[in-house]
Design a protein that fits this description.
- The chain has helices at about 1-5, 10-20, 45-55, 75-80, 95-105, 120-165, and strands at about 30-40, 60-65, 80-90, 105-110.
- It has about 170 residues and is of the alpha/beta class.
- The protein has a four-stranded parallel sheet, sandwiched between helices.
- Helix 3 crosses helix 6.
- The N and C termini lie far apart (about 90 Å).
């Protein structure tokens, strides 16, 4: 038995099974600001929260994992298409930890360890909070971008003025 555990065969079998597992399918936009990842019994509450958010006009994407070992072969690509990932779990965040470690994804946790399932409102409120945070971050990025654009315009104008005069054969600005 010990030799079996040391052999590469079990790992090869798991890798081969990966080819038979369906790829992760994203419900909602294929890329964007926020992806919710579910597995197991969190699925129903997450679907309910996402339905509510979409009715309110929020673009939130969702992927439900049916296989955890091995994970779907395209999961890394899916996670990279989103700025943030939220994993609601009825434990201490083991899936979130695995996704961070394996894919280096910016995974946020919503953990609940009370022996009770999530309420739709708990997940809805956390997603809504993240959407507002994303909106604030986006607004701040737009302000910085506008400031940088203004700085570039000023620099270009100054270069234009410097190029008009003071150099050889040029005349000073009027």
């Amino acid at each position: 038995f010990a030799k079996l555990l040391q052999s590469p065969m079990p790992h090869a079998k798991v890798r081969n099974i990966e080819n038979d597992i369906p790829e992760a399918e994203v419900d909602g936009p294929a890329r964007g600001d926020l992806l919710i990842v579910s597995w197991g019994s969190t699925h129903g509450a997450i679907r309910g929260a996402i339905r509510r958010l979409r009715k309110a006009g929020d673009d939130v994407s969702h992927v439900h994992l049916r296989h955890l070992n091995p994970l779907p072969r395209n999961l890394g690509d899916v996670l990279r298409r989103f700025d943030r990932v939220l994993v609601p779990e009825l434990n201490l965040g083991q899936l979130a930890l695995l996704l961070r470690a394996r894919y280096l994804a910016d995974v946020q946790q919503l953990d609940k360890v009370q022996g009770r399932p999530f309420k739709v409102s708990e997940i809805h409120d956390r997603i809504r909070e993240l959407v507002r945070q994303i909106d604030r971050d986006s607004a701040a990025t737009q302000i910085v971008t506008l400031d940088n654009a203004g700085a570039r315009e000023i620099a270009a104008a100054l270069q234009g003025l410097a190029g008009q005069g003071g150099g050889e054969g040029g005349s000073p600005p009027v």
